[in-house]
Amino acid sequence: MYDIKLMDNEKVLLISDNSLIYNSNYEKVYTTIITNYRFLILDFPSNENNLLEDLRTSQRLTYIKKKEVIFSIKLDDITDITKHTDYYKITFNNSYILIKDNDIINKLIKLSNVS
Questions:
Q1: Are 3 and 66 within 8 A, CB to CB?
Q2: Helical residues (DSSP H) of 58-98, grouped into ranges
Q3: Are 68 and 30 in contact (CB under 8 A)?
Q4: Which of 14, 52, 71, 84 has its CA 20 to 30 Å from the CA of residue 43?
């Protein structure tokens, strides 16, 4: 399950639960979503300071864990997508993300104005 709020006229085009993202010498699998306006990265909320998780572990509540948006960028803000050895570098606003997910990359290339 995903906890996302879509904008007016926004439609989900592709969801991948197997996007491998590199971050500071480690890699982790995230859910990524491409809409007609944005590229989103989702993950489960931290167990730390999570009231619902505290209640669940104390067996007072059962709830469905939902992945939430931890990163969002407009497709128009993506300035470059380049292939590296085993991952792609998505550049935006003087920052970048390193990702390994061919379906997501192919869709982003089609939707954004990059080569």
A1: yes
A2: none
A3: no
A4: 84
Token pair belonging to 70: 């931890």
Per residue in 40-53, is it b (16+ CB within 10 Å) or e — as a string?
A: bbbeeeeeeeeeeb
Residues 28 and 22: beta-carbon distance below 8 Å: no
- Helices within the chain (DSSP H only): 51-57, 102-111
- The label of the residue with tokens 């128009």 reads 76
What whole-number distance in Å separates Cα of residue 5 and Cα of residue 21?
23
**Per-residue pLDDT tens digits for 83-110:** 988 899 999 999 999 999 999 999 999 9
Which pTM value belongs to this model?
0.83
